[in-house]
Amino acid sequence: MSLQVLRGQAAGPESAPLPRSVTRLEPSRGWVALRLDDVWGYRELLWFLALRDIKVRYKQTVLGLSWAVLQPVGTALVFTVVFGRLAHIPSDGVPYAVFALAGLVPWTFFASAVSTTALSLVGNTNLISKVYFPRLCVPIATVLASFVDLLVASVVLFAAMAVYGVGAGARILLVLPFMLLAFAAALGAGLWLSAIAARYRDVRHAVPFLLQFWLFATPVAYPSSLLAERWHMLYAINPMVGVVEGFRWSLLGSHVGIGSLALTSATSAAVLLVTGALYFRRMERSFADVI
Amino acid sequence: MSAFAVRTERLSKDYVLGEGSGYGYDSLRERLTELATAPVRAVSRRRRSERAEQRRLHALVELSLTIDEGEIVGIIGSNGAGKSTLLKVLSRITEPTSGWVEIAGRVGSLLEVGTGFHPELTGRENIYLNGAILGMRQAEIRRQFDQIVTFAGIERFLETPVKRYSSGMYVRLAFSVAAHLQTEVLLVDEVLAVGDAEFQRKCLGRMDAVAREGRTVLFVSHNMAVIQALCQRGILLQSGRLATDGPVDVAVAHYLRSLEQATAVDLLERTDRSGWHDIRVSALEVTGDNGAALASGSPARFVVTLTGLQPGTTCTLTILNNLGQPVCQFASGNSSALDSSVLRPAPEGASARFVCEVDELPLLPGRYRIDVLVRGTHHTEDRIASAAMFDVEPGILAGRPVPRAGSGDVAVAHRWIVPVA
Fold first, then answer.
1. Mutant choice from B28, B35, B57, B187 vs A, greatest count of A C-beta within 10 A
2. Bridge partner list, B103
3. Of A228, A258, B98, B349, which is most buried with the most CB atoms under 10 A?
């Protein structure tokens, strides 16, 4: 909703004039401002919501945080057997197991972040219909909670790299901007999907299909060098292409033309994020009414 | 003139009903079909706008009011009058359809206790989470932590997950966090209806303290006794419009009078009812001994006429006093050996009557109203609040006269053994 915060003076005769902030609530039309300052004001809540998701996820599970590790490692094992051994898919000069794991770690984060964020609004109905806070906090907190899993899985990835004797030295630090790119891509997709799912309930069934398709459109099991050079620009519109190849380039030193891929993917992720946030804000006014 | 705390100008809020966008779930499939057939439907443009109008619920209509700093205002009205919607708009949970609202200062809303509580987290963790959700800063929560815990009385259970709490503890903790909000404006929606009598007394005390601190409180309730005790000003809403705005006694009197007028309307025509409505209540009659007036200690007969009957239908009558407090309840589903049944002689579509007989009405003289609830096997068929009103005259219960000016609502048969000097 359209919001103006005016600072005015109280006119009480007895008391000394105090500065008061007056909030004005009016119906909003069309596109609504992002108001990120409002979200920043509620950053403590953001933190608490993310913490809640993380704690709850692991409080009563036997294996606890190791679930964050089992998923990429387990899938990597399967991929190694099926794609590496049986199908002999090339792996850019690196042992296939590490190759697959380096792709699976960011991918698992993306897939779990997007699927949980898509349902985040619907799952927090009681909050949204009873209390005010900037609704953007909900998807952001959900992606943040998944991000913790990414950090944990990365530790295992480093361990695997050490075992296989792979690693490009100081270039490993450059994995950080690619983690940020993954966060932006996941948040962008999550914002779009959560806003749509709040309104149209059947979308939740489409998300697993969407992610499965997306997995094959991302070079997780195979290298992007499998594609002819002329397709690379189009291919990199999928932001996860830049993320996965970026992970492999920075951690494993695979020889891929990373510059143009990364740039295209970064632009694509930025567009996804900004449009996702704008769409979310535009749909926000109806959340409490439809949820 | 003191400064305003809340100000609205021609505030309106509409909801769209039906399966379309707005209420209920849309499916993307339906929406796409709707878009695809739009050119065809555009031909019948006039009919479409008529249909659209029928599907709009006007929850608030052109509401303009000003509430000054430090006022304690009670907002009353029947169900569906727009009270909760008004609080939701003021809490920024939903936005106005037209008009505007201005609020000075921070707003704390108590629309439901325990918002955001997670069963897996401990009491301590939930205090911080719930406090943050309600808008408190972490420093603020830390400062008031001990007071919150003491008010709720859960010192020993701080590190236990909330799912292990009894419902009483849960409610006490939830209310305690919210009661320590330090916002300038406080909106409270009937949360005091939860908890036992002891806790309700504590809550009222706390609300009173909050009010005396000079904060602005908007309080929604159906309990006229609490409204009159706590508030100085009363706002009565009827069908989304402002009906009365003045001293709380005046607003309460207007509300009670409107309830009486509502009961004068034929029950079938009343629209303020909820439920599945396969069966509806068409009449509710309350009579005394052989058609005489109702009196304390005398027989009374309640006859509920329904439009139909299904196997497993039950009827529940709740008697409330003039202030809206429930006094007693008669539930046909809670059967006893003294109940009897009568075969309905008529075909399926004909009406059925539930009759409840009381040999000695234990109510004190005064005015009462009845809420009626009809349940089928799977869901509520019909529910009407204040379906009928009746007066009870002074009478005699177990040989003792029941006077008009007594305390409480019920007279109980008893004997005294009195010393003689």
1. B28
2. A23, B6
3. A258
